[in-house]
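note to self: dont lose this again. the chain is below, predicted strucutre after it. 84 aa total, dont forget to put it in the shared folder this time
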Amino acid sequence: MELNIITPDQSIFSGQAHSVTVPGSAGSFEILKDHAPIISTLDDGKVIIRNNKDIEVIIIKGGVVEVLDNKITVLAEGVVTEEN
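---
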């Protein structure tokens, strides 16, 4: 699947993912290949990106996720960086 995570001022992640877990407003949920189309609001929390055995975690400050035709777009209000 193609994953893009963006904020109002920058692109945070762009690449392929086998599964993505997002912090939905009604609870975290996982997106796998051929997931049904969905648009959901997101709370502050972890976006967990899995590729084979590699796992990357990006902490976002709320936003929206759209899933359509194996393309996932996360529009985050901001991200928490290690420097903060």
